[in-house]
């Protein structure tokens, strides 16, 4: 569901500076996975798209769902050419089997980005909520309301699947707010990684990007 707005015909043409960064946010799920893509130009953030990967119709075959996540992630990557992936860490609940499945879904989404040499950053759910709403205990509805106010989003139906999409948007915005001072579980920032591994820089930049759609 594209969310970019069209200027009225009488509005003057405004030339924006080149995009500094395109960030993809992902809220992992085994039934519904939220995703969002934002474009950063200076202090201006524009939402390119936010939606979900709905896998409820795929039945109980977990492998089929993982394949769907990987395929759709590659499609989104090739369409929007994100510079970085921000992904929410699994919430540690009491159901071990659910946690294992959620971890696999997250891993497949990360693997799709790594296959295109896109670095990732992982954020705890409380970190995302704190960054967007100021409270680490905010619920999904509060996160969605704050995002609509901050990013001037058009009203959308408050269905569970859209709340997964706004959760993904919150992850992307949280990553933007970090301004390069990211802390992620089990991995360093991409800049720090290249600084510590100069020989990997060439390999990470061999994929040629085409011009992003306007």
From TrEMBL:
Keywords: Cytoplasm, DNA damage, DNA recombination, DNA repair, DNA-binding, Endonuclease, Hydrolase, Magnesium, Metal-binding, Nuclease. Its EC number is 3.1.21.10. CDD domains: RuvC. GO terms for cellular component: cytoplasm; Holliday junction resolvase complex. The active site is at residues 27, 88, 164. Gene3D superfamilies: Ribonuclease H-like superfamily/Ribonuclease H. Binds 2 Mg(2+) ion per subunit. It is found in: Cytoplasm. Mg(2+) 2 binds at residue 88. Its cofactor is Mg(2+). The keyword Cytoplasm applies. Its main location: cytoplasm. Belongs to the RuvC family. The RuvA-RuvB-RuvC complex processes Holliday junction (HJ) DNA during genetic recombination and DNA repair. Endonuclease that resolves HJ intermediates. Cleaves cruciform DNA by making single-stranded nicks across the HJ at symmetrical positions within the homologous arms, yielding a 5'-phosphate and a 3'-hydroxyl group; requires a central core of homology in the junction. The consensus cleavage sequence is 5'-(A/T)TT(C/G)-3'. Cleavage occurs on the 3'-side of the TT dinucleotide at the point of strand exchange. Homodimer which binds Holliday junction (HJ) DNA. The HJ becomes 2-fold symmetrical on binding to RuvC with unstacked arms; it has a different conformation from HJ DNA in complex with RuvA. In the full resolvosome a probable DNA-RuvA(4)-RuvB(12)-RuvC(2) complex forms which resolves the HJ. This is Crossover junction endodeoxyribonuclease RuvC. It comes from Hymenobacter setariae. The lineage of its organism: Bacteria, Pseudomonadati, Bacteroidota, Cytophagia, Cytophagales. The gene is ruvC.
